[in-house]
Write a structure and sequence with these properties.
By secondary structure, the protein is mainly α. Helix content is about 80%, strand content about 0%. This is Phosphate transport regulator.
């Protein structure tokens, strides 16, 4: 049974995921209404979300330094906190690459990818909301499996997007740019799965 002080750790993990969800929602909205001329402003907004996520991570780390007894092993809390922060970082990275490569027209796969990323983050939030009750939960494993499933969809989308890119054979600069962007999209899904796998490991260690 966790006390009020212990529960704060779970609340910080949930807060970190909420920033990832917000970042994914912004990315999806920015791509659905894509306008290269406002990418700079959109990056500023995204960076503020990433900054807030960093502050949440540091708050958890400071709490770990101060306290001797924690509800989970310190390395597990630290690993989860960092993994969640990596999700938000990877989402920001997509927007940065669109700006860096001066993309003015999206490929259709980008929109589909942004929806999958948003679904992954929503599923991750669902998982983390259940995480404080993992010792008694009857649904948490299903939530982990759902994230694994969405990551597999992301993998298939990545494979097909790369196939279309090289079948259509645009110029070399476009191939290089979109190869990197697709890599970043896939990384978003991978980071969500990494959090889910880390949660599963914590459950196994504490069962």
């Amino acid at each position: 049974m966790t006390g009020k002080r212990d529960h704060l750790y779970f609340e910080l993990l949930q807060e970190g995921v909420r920033y990832a969800v917000e970042a994914a929602a912004q990315l999806q909205n920015d791509l659905e209404h894509f306008d290269a001329s406002v990418l700079n402003q959109q990056i500023d907004t995204m960076h503020e979300l990433e900054h807030q996520a960093d502050l949440t991570k540091h708050q958890a780390m400071e709490k770990l330094i101060r306290e001797f007894i924690t509800p989970l092993e310190r390395e597990d809390i630290l690993g989860l906190t960092s993994a969640i922060d990596d999700v938000t970082d990877s989402i920001e990275d997509v927007l940065l690459r669109l700006y860096m490569f001066n993309i003015h027209e999206l490929r259709p796969d980008a929109l589909e990818f942004s929806r999958i990323v948003a679904q992954c983050c929503a599923a991750l939030q669902d998982l983390m909301d259940e995480f404080p009750h993992f010792r008694k939960s009857k649904t948490i494993r299903e939530k982990i499996i759902e994230i694994n499933h969405l990551e597999e969809i992301g993998d298939r989308l990545y494979t097909e997007a790369m196939h279309r890119l090289h079948t259509e054979r645009p110029d070399a600069v476009e191939i290089l740019s979109w190869t990197t962007i697709y890599d970043r999209f896939e990384k978003c899904c991978d980071m969500c799965e990494h959090v889910a796998d880390s949660v599963e490991l914590v459950i196994l260690k504490n069962s």
